[in-house]
Write a structure and sequence with these properties.
Strand 4 (71-75), helix 2 and strand 5 form a beta-alpha-beta unit. This protein has helices at 51-65, 84-97, 110-113, 118-126, 141-146, 153-166, 184-198, 215-220, 229-242, 269-281, and strands spanning 20-23, 25-26, 47-48, 71-75, 103-107, 129-137, 169-176, 202-207, 248-252, 261-265. The two termini are 30 Å apart. The protein is α/β, with parallel strands linked by helices. Helices cover 37% and strands 17% of the residues. The strands form 2 sheets. An 8-stranded mixed sheet has the order 1-4-5-6-7-8-9-10. A two-stranded antiparallel sheet has the order 2-3. The protein contains 10 helices and 10 strands. It folds into 2 domains: 1-107, 2-Layer Sandwich (Transcription Regulator spoIIAA); 135-296, Transcription Regulator spoIIAA, CATH 3.30.750.
């Protein structure tokens, strides 16, 4: 058994399926986003893990599996809330006890990078932090305020620029349908504007969904009307059309997505747009994911 204490449920990006999940915090340091159900369980109340516990977990895991582990994901919701000193100590311990590790990644809330200078971000990159997953959700300030994201277009752009300047790979996520019917077009256009301004290495879209019900979300966004399947495709067409990316790996293949899209932008932009337009015009011929397979 891995000598790490986990607090269920444990979340990680799909691409971290084969990574060691190393909790350095529990829960999310913000946890006000009304669309998010990940850290609402009572046992997921935010706190920083005890430094000695984290270091002992790294040491013991390295002792048992140090030559086998290639990737480490720093959990939970946002390891970057920790002071830079603590993060550097964690990265150094991983290098010392798990010498085969080639990638260290984490979720990252833009708000927590405001407290770190560019020099600090550069230092973290030099110490081995290689990838950050940023849930931008939207580039539209009205949408972000309505869902209590605690961010703006400018704050998200600043964080992505800091990460990019340090050479840390950025994986950005946008929520298809988050603005509802009223704000669908501005959500799509401003989200594309954010991506164009920052040129992330990876970009993904998920469809907003509420497996545990919409009550918490609607309490703060009562005017929100969900998009139909057709309207989701129209919003995606607006989003893709507005993108001007030089070389960004694009994925829209999460379980929530009806239409699976994969490509590199910009070389595959026209092919992806053709797929979306096919789904708009003739959904029965678009090879959509069946409802039962959406895993929600």
């Amino acid at each position: 058994m891995i000598p790490i204490r986990y607090v269920e449920p444990v979340f990680r990006p799909p691409s971290e399926a084969e990574s060691l999940i190393l909790p350095v915090t529990d829960g999310c340091s913000w946890n006000h986003c009304t669309f998010c159900e990940m850290y609402t369980a009572p046992q997921k109340k935010f706190r920083a893990r005890d430094e000695d516990e984290v270091m002992e977990s790294i040491r013991l895991t390295g002792q048992r599996y140090g030559e086998e582990i290639r990737r480490v994901f720093l959990a939970d919701g946002d390891a970057m809330v920790l002071p830079t000193r603590r993060l550097l100590a964690i990265l150094e311990a991983i290098r010392t006890h798990m010498p085969a590790v080639r990638r260290i990644s984490t979720y990252c809330l833009p708000r927590n990078l405001r407290k770190k200078s560019q020099a600090e971000i550069d230092e973290l990159a030099a110490a081995g932090l290689t990838m950050a997953y940023v849930g931008a959700e939207s580039g539209d300030d009205e949408v972000l305020a309505a869902v209590k994201k605690g961010e703006t277009f400018d704050s998200t752009r600043e964080a992505l620029d800091k990460l990019g300047a340090a050479g840390i790979t950025r994986s950005v996520m946008i929520l298809n349908g988050l603005g509802g019917k009223a704000w669908s077009q501005q959500h799509a256009e401003n989200s594309a504007r954010l991506a164009n301004a920052t040129q992330p290495e990876y970009l993904a879209t998920l469809v907003v969904s509420f497996p545990m019900g919409e009550q918490r979300f609607r309490a703060d966004f009562p005017s929100w009307e969900p998009l139909s399947q057709h309207e989701l495709f129209v919003e995606m067409e607006h989003f893709l059309s507005a993108l001007d990316l030089k070389r960004t790996v694009f994925r829209s293949d999460h379980a929530s997505n009806w239409l699976i899209l994969k490509g590199t932008l910009g070389v595959d932009k026209e092919r992806l747009l053709q797929q979306v337009r096919q789904a708009i015009a003739s959904p029965e011929q678009a090879h959509l994911r069946p409802a039962w397979a959406r895993g929600l």
